[in-house]
Amino acid sequence: MQKVKKPGLVTDLWPHIRLMRMSGMWILEFYEEPVGMKRFLHIIYAMCTTFLLLFQYGFLLAYVIIDSFTGDQMASTTITLLFFTHGVTKYIYLAFRTKYFYRALRAWNMMNSHPLFAESNARHRTTSLMRTRKLLVIIGIGTLATVFCWASVTFVGDSVRPYHDPLNPNETVLIEVPRLMFGAHYIWDPNDGMAYVFTFLYQLYWVLLTLVHCNLLDVIFCSFAIFACEQLKHLKEIMRPLMELSAALDSVVPNAGNLFRVSSADSNIPLIANQEDDVDMRGSFLYSNSPDYNGYESRILNRQSFNPNGLTKKQELMVRSAIKYWVERHKHVVKYVTNIGDFYGTALLLHMLTSTVTLTLLAYQATKIDGFNLFAVYVISYLFYSLTQVFVFCIHGNELIEESSSVMEAAYSCHWYDGSEEAKTFIQIVCQQCQKSLSVSGAKFFTVSLDLFASVLGAVVTYFMVLIQLK
To answer: For the whole model, what pTM was predicted?
Structure first.
């Protein structure tokens, strides 16, 4: 017997939401059972996760302040602290911004379509889901590989470090340290016995948790951007056949007010596909795979009950509803991108600021590399991981800008000057809505694009030169 999905369940992004809940994030909605014991247990689990996350972060911060004496040691411990700051800040950020997260998810789930373009809408929605799940798998494998390598490299090399006695600053001694994944100032002795085993397992759990939190939210942001891009591709794809249809309306008024006035007859035309009336209406149009029309070619076949424009009354209402669908869907995409910025804008700002400082310190540490050793592996791994995090944001933000910019170009290439007055009015409305490219900003301080990636690299080089001069 097939399981019936209950209202409020996120179907498309359900793998992402399930992983977020499994990692202890404060996702209290979108349950199969919105109330009851399951919700209460998840609140307890999220509270325990928050305590363990902040508890270990406090030990790491104390280690940076108390146990770092030399400049090189301070730089290395600060890099580790900043590296894990991404996961901690994003976890807390989501806990306080869940309202905006739910708003973006609900906008994702709105999937009204038009009978004439249901196939295109379904195809691009499926493409976006395939891309998001592929990205989730790639990032997930990278996260697990990072944790495995971090745990493995812990047992490579010597387990000693230099210690500077505050009473004798000129004297340096080597002290034995436990083989842990990173240094931390614990309130217990983690050197041997069960205390060491507990501490190592705690660190392993903490590293996995922070990386999962950080990367899952990054994947969610990229998934939102991918969906917006596919919706824009859908709108560009249907513009040429829509222009061909609207060109047939050569006897109607040419102003936007009458074009989008909802009459009693228009209100009876469904905007959801797979209805019986839709089949009759779609029977009046023939679709082919001609590349001249981006996969669509529309020709009027049914000529019964001629209006002055050569269309039946039913066909004319269908064309008007199709034009209205395009404009409303583009407005929905604009609002959807705004919801993405409201949800993730401040987190992007914090991420870029932290990454800039981290990359600057890594560039400084790279000057200390004198061969292929454990130190070089650490520095190169940190550097590659941090750059990849920034690049993933920027490449998807740049794709959104390019897709939204090309909508107006697609409108201009539709030979609108040969169409009817209504077709020209439609193009004017399209150009008005597409004057500004869609983009996601980091709390209005910057726009997420490849230009931002170049700016981050430029800032890193500048700060790096300042560090070298201050040495």
So the answer is: 0.79
Report d(CA 385, CA 284) in Å as an integer.
55
Distance spanning both ends of the chain, measured CA to CA = 71
User: Tokens standing for 362?
Assistant: 């890594």
**pLDDT tens digits for range 95-116:** 998 888 988 888 877 767 788 8
Q: What percent of the chain clears pLDDT 70, i.e. is strictly above it?
A: 74
pLDDT digits (tens, 9 = 90+) for 301-347: 333 344 444 556 777 777 778 878 888 888 889 889 998 988 998 89
Residue 275 Cα to chain centre, angstroms: 34
DSSP 128-157: HHHHHHHHHHHHHHHHHHHHHHHHHHTTSS
3-state secondary structure of 194: helix
Percent of the chain with pLDDT over 90: 23
**Type of residue found at 165:** D
Nearest Cα neighbor of 348 from 160, 181, 221 is 221
Distance, in Å, from the CA atom of 234 to the CA atom of 401, rounded to the nearest integer, reads: 15
Distance CA 162, CA 60 (A): 18
Give the model confidence (pLDDT) of 167-184 as tens digits: 666 666 666 667 888 888
| 399: three-class secondary structure by DSSP | helix
**Gap between the Cα atoms of 162 and 183, Å rounded:** 13
What are the C-alpha distances in Å from 395 to residues 176, 202, 340?
45, 35, 16
Q: Which residue has the tokens 């061909």?
A: 244
CB neighbour list of residue 357: distance below 8 Å, 6 or more residues apart: 82, 463
Residue listed under structure tokens 């490449």: 395
Contact 359, 456 (CB under 8 A): yes
Which of 337, 338, 340 minimizes the C-alpha distance to 348?
340
- What is d(CA 228, CA 334) in angstroms, rounded to the nearest whole number? 9
pLDDT band at 419 (very low <50, low <70, confident <90, very high): low
